[in-house]
Amino acid sequence: NAGVTQTPKFQVLKTGQSMTLQCAQDMNHEYMSWYRQDPGMGLRLIHYSVGAGITDQGEVPNGYNVSRSTTEDFPLRLLSAAPSQTSVYFCASSYSSGGGYTFGSGTRLTVV
Amino acid sequence: ELKVEQNPLFLSMQEGKNYTIYCNYSTTSDRLYWYRQDPGKSLESLFVLLSNGAVKQEGRLMASLDTKARLSTLHITAAVHDLSATYFCAVYLSGTYKYIFGTGTRLKVLA
Known about the structure:
- The complex is a heterodimer.
- Chain A has strands at residues 4-7, 10-13, 19-25, 31-37, 43-51, 54-57, 64-66, 76-78, 87-94, 102-103, 107-111.
- Chain A is mostly beta strands.
- In chain A, the strands form two sheets. In chain A, strands 2, 4, 5, 6, 9, 10 and 11 form a seven-stranded mixed sheet that branches. In chain A, strands 1-3-8-7 form a four-stranded antiparallel sheet, with no helix packed on it.
- In chain A, strand 9 (87-94) and strand 10 (102-103) form a beta hairpin.
- The termini of chain A are far apart.
- Chain B is mainly β.
- Chain B is 0% helix and 58% strand.
- The interface between A and B is medium-sized, with 25 and 25 residues.
């Protein structure tokens, strides 16, 4: 099994550009989440999904959109990139609402 | 709003020594996870603690949970260099599908 696959691993954007971070899992997990990791702040929840067609906001949703058209995929869209969105982004999935996460390898995003 | 605090944030210790990392949280929860992250890598699940008084051990790491005190500890016994990493606790908000992570403890074990 590949687990949770994130692409790209690295990305540099200019302010105002848009892009989509891809996340796919092959474990048939219903629950998927996006986190951002910033120094000294741990991981903060951006958006999450409890199944295909169902998404909700986390702690820091502004500037990001998500959709969940299939169980496998949970892309994160940056609408208009800002330097404050420079971060490492992790996608994670879980087999149940209280189950532990399997994390992807992360995407390091720099907005200049 | 659930707040999760870890301390210390940074820990430098000699090989062979013992130490404890603390994770305090501000509201009730019925489960807590500990994760490890190596530099530049993803997070790896270490332990899940599901009830008051739960204790889990693997190798030199032992985690415990006191839900009444809203406190979890990660105890390191006779540290070795390979344990150098950042450790996170994550508290589950019951019924919300959300986990809130602590700020992490960066552990460096000196040979």
